## 1
Amino acid sequence: MLQVRDVWKNFQGSPVLRGVSLSVGAGEVVGLAGPSGGGKSTLLRCIEGLETADEGAIALDGSVGFMFQDFQLFPHMTVRENVAYALRPSKKENRAAVRVQDLLERLGIWDLRDRYPRSLSGGQKQRTALARTLVLDPDLLLCDEPTSGLDADCTDGVARLLRSAVSSQRAILIASHDSDFLKKAADRILHMQDGTIGKEVRNPFPLRAPNGAVRTADLLALAREEKGEQSQESGPQEEPQEEGTPSRIEFGEGQG
Ligand SMILES: Nc1ncnc2c1ncn2[C@@H]1O[C@H](COP(=O)(O)OP(=O)(O)OP(=O)(O)O)[C@@H](O)[C@H]1O
Ligand SMILES: [Mg+2]
């Protein structure tokens, strides 16, 4: 899905990426670890197209979504408005509304739909940001420091959340200096330092979210629906869940 080959990037004459190569396949969650300043965010920004590589090639088969380090939720918009905003140019308003509701339910934040970001916990903001990214159904999800500012419990929730968002058609690349988090979230971890990728560690025991198969199917159905493909499900059939109660999508972080 993603092939990065020998990418170089300089800022003001100093090299920040120095011949980075990596590949990510559909269905994989890949972690980018390493110390501050190593070039992780710069690499994600090059993949996303926010920066242009000076040399090398980046081939991406599919669409890309970016979840920013500080979430970048719009403070003057509610949870629902933040998520719906991503779909704004959509002509199919009704379908967009259904899709937003479905996703918020699946992520367990439908009850928070009319709240503003300032009144949300870190984990709740995190889920809102993820909803806003997933609503566009990206094939590759890039996450930059998704656990920054979250406590350990929330961090586990984010690991489960991200694992639940991967599917046979979607890959996730996560930059994080939190190696404990990456050990839970990622299938393999690439170590990045001084603009190069060093050793790769395969993770035999990534955190498995409960009922993962069900959730992946849910997200896939959502994706197909939006793409206009036929889906067995005609829409959200189940009742919105109370926050904190187990739902189809259980992220282990119910209290948020
Ligand atoms: N727009 C820019 N202009 C100049 N230098 C930059 C720019 N963006 C990043 N850099 C520099 O590039 C280097 C790599 O930064 P980057 O943000 O990619 O590292 P990182 O691995 O994501 O670090 P962290 O773990 O702290 O997020 C740093 O030395 C940084 O100062
Ligand atoms: Mg960074």
## 2
Amino acid sequence: MLIKFNVLLLFNTAFALQQNLRNQILISQKNKCGMCKKNFSKLIPHEIHHLNHNASDNNKNNLLALCCNCHAAHHRYNISVKPYFTDINNSHP
Ligand SMILES: [Zn+2]
Ligand SMILES: [Zn+2]
């Protein structure tokens, strides 16, 4: 029972950390998808992508918020994903 409780506690802590990280990432990306730059919304949910495909590497530099379409496109069709750059407003489409 004690082990079970500890696992649950560990899971909750990891989850809370992830929520916090998610928020930080969304703020730094101005709530936009790192690929198509669409604003996230209820209709365009965000997903956190691990740039090096290592799901246990939660370093901020390894995480990128993508919309579900871009995320799926990357994993299904190997469309390349680049890290989000903050000077995105200066780049032309
Ligand atoms: Zn997108
Ligand atoms: Zn991913």
## 3
Amino acid sequence: MGRKSIASRRRVSVTSCESNKEAYRLHLENNLMNKVAGRMTTINADSTTLPNRLEQKFDRILMPLPTRADKYIGTALGLVADGGVIHYYRHLTAEDFEEARSAVLNELNGVQGLRNVEVRKVREVGPRWLEVVADLHLSKN
Ligand SMILES: C[S@@+](CC[C@H](N)C(=O)[O-])C[C@H]1O[C@@H](n2cnc3c(N)ncnc32)[C@H](O)[C@@H]1O
């Protein structure tokens, strides 16, 4: 589910962060075209600054930068609410899904408060190159 379809649901508010100025401008246009601008807070910044800028914690975090999600997992963990879920998208070199699954679980080894992880294949990006998403269910206890 993308941010637009989440924002289309009633009583849901969505915060989105985009560092690129042109992509941010297009994001604002999309918010209007999809009639979700009233429920979207759209921030033009480097996402690593968010834990210091925002007091709010989030029930669900999407990480749609599969090439570098490993660099940003610490930021996402600083923003997720107790009991929240992080959708960790990753591009990985692997022979098959099982190898990609092991690689992503290995990357997440040591994440504090990880209660449950489900890994799914999203698509084949290229030969021996898969996109997977790991749904991280987190709790402080
Ligand atoms: C693969 S695109 C995702 C496109 C679209 N935002 C989506 O969710 O479908 C990744 C986006 O992350 C943005 N990005 C990369 N590094 C970032 C960072 N440190 N903080 C915020 N946005 C970043 C890029 O400018 C790019 O638009």
## 4
Amino acid sequence: MDKLLVEKNDLVKEKYELLDSLKKINEKIKEVDICIMNNCKHEWVKEREIGVIYPETFIRCLHCGLYQ
Ligand SMILES: [Zn+2]
């Protein structure tokens, strides 16, 4: 039983380390996205919402995905 508890504690510790890494990666992705948007030569396209009764129109950049 002790062996199983140690194994579980190791797994829980590894899980939290991985979750922490994931959080850091997500923060880096956000930073890179902001850089991409700030350096993009935007090319705007109109898009209509699909699958709804009253679709809205959006204007979005083809390259970086930014919405106006
Ligand atoms: Zn753009």
